[in-house]
Specification:
- The chain is 78% helix and 0% strand.
- It has helices at residues 9-35, 38-58, 60-64, 69-79, 86-94, 96-102, 105-132, 138-147, 151-172, 177-183, 185-190, 194-208, 213-233.
- Helix 1 (9-35) runs antiparallel to helix 5 (86-94), helix 1 (9-35) runs parallel beside helix 7 (105-132) and helix 9 (151-172) crosses helix 12 (194-208).
C-alpha cells in the first residue's frame, strides 16, 4: 500500500477519510481545469478511451475467462474507464463525513486507494492530452508516454492499481462483510451514498467470486509493469507479447 495505514477502528477511518478528501481535491481541481477547455477535454477523453481499449486488449483473457471476467470488468470500468466522473467526484466530496460514519475502515481504504489512483491518473492523462490532442495514432501515444510524466509517476500509478486490488482482497476476507454491505443499501441511499455503495458491492462481489483474487491482482500488475518497462526501453511494439 502507498499509505502507512492504521486500519483499525475510528483512527483508521479518520486516516482513510483524510486521504479521500485530499486526493478528491486534486481530482476535482484537475477535472474542472480540463472541463473549462473544450479542446483539452476532448483530448483527455480520447486519451482515456485509447488507454481503456489498450487495457481491454492486454487483459482480454481475464475479461473472457468466467472466473476473472467480473473482476476484470470492474477494474476497467470502475477504476479506469473513459467516462467523465466529474459529477461522481463532486457528490463523493459532499458525503465523506457520512462515509466515515457508516463504512468500516477497510472499505474506506478501498475507496481511498481508488481515489488516489484516479488523482494520479488524471494528472498523467492531462499531460498526455496536452501533447496528443484528440486525434492520434498508437505511435503518437507511445512517443507522448515517453516524453510526458516521469517513470517514477508511472511506477506509482501501477502501485496504486496493486493497492486497490489488495484492499479488495482484504475486504472479502472480513467475516460477514457481504451481509454488512447489503444491510447498508437503505441507509446509504438515504445518505446519498448509493453510488459508492454500489462501487463497493461490485468490487466485493467480483473479488469474492474468484478462487484466487491475489493471483488476479498479481497478473494485472505484472503485465502493466512489463508494458511500462518496454515503453521506457524504447521497444517498437511495447503493447505486444503479453
Amino acid at each position: 500500500m502507498r499509505y502507512q495505514r492504521d486500519q483499525s477502528g475510528n483512527a483508521g477511518k479518520r486516516e482513510a477519510a483524510s486521504v479521500i478528501r485530499r486526493e478528491l481535491g486534486e481530482v476535482i481541481a484537475a477535472r474542472k481545469s480540463a472541463g473549462s477547455d473544450p479542446v483539452l477535454h476532448a483530448a483527455r477523453v480520447a486519451v482515456r478511451s485509447f488507454q481503456a481499449q489498450r487495457m481491454a486488449d492486454t487483459h482480454a483473457d481475464l475479461l473472457h475467462a468466467p472466473g476473472t471476467k467480473a473482476a476484470a470488468q470492474f477494474f476497467l470500468a470502475d477504476l479506469y474507464g473513459s467516462d467523465d466522473l466529474t459529477q461522481r467526484d463532486a457528490s463523493l466530496e459532499r458525503v465523506v463525513p457520512a462515509m466515515e460514519r457508516m463504512l468500516p475502515a477497510t472499505a474506506l481504504w478501498a475507496v481511498a486507494e481508488a481515489v488516489s489512483l484516479d488523482a494520479l491518473s488524471e494528472k498523467l492523462d492531462a499531460a498526455m492530452a496536452m501533447r496528443l490532442g484528440a486525434n492520434f495514432t498508437e505511435a503518437d501515444y507511445i512517443a507522448a508516454y515517453r516524453q510526458s510524466g516521469t517513470r517514477k509517476d508511472r511506477e506509482r500509478q501501477i502501485r496504486h492499481v496493486e493497492s486497490v486490488g489488495r484492499a479488495l482482497c482484504e475486504l472479502v476476507r472480513i467475516p460477514l462483510i457481504g451481509s454488512t454491505l447489503a444491510m447498508m443499501r437503505g441507509p446509504a441511499k438515504v445518505a446519498n451514498l448509493a453510488e459508492l455503495q454500489s462501487f463497493l458491492e461490485r468490487g466485493f462481489k467480483a473479488f469474492k467470486e474468484m478462487k484466487d483474487p491475489a493471483a488476479f491482482v498479481a497478473t494485472v500488475v505484472h503485465r502493466e509493469q512489463g508494458i511500462m518497462k518496454r515503453l521506457y526501453a524504447g521497444e517498437p511494439q511495447p503493447f505486444a507479447g503479453i
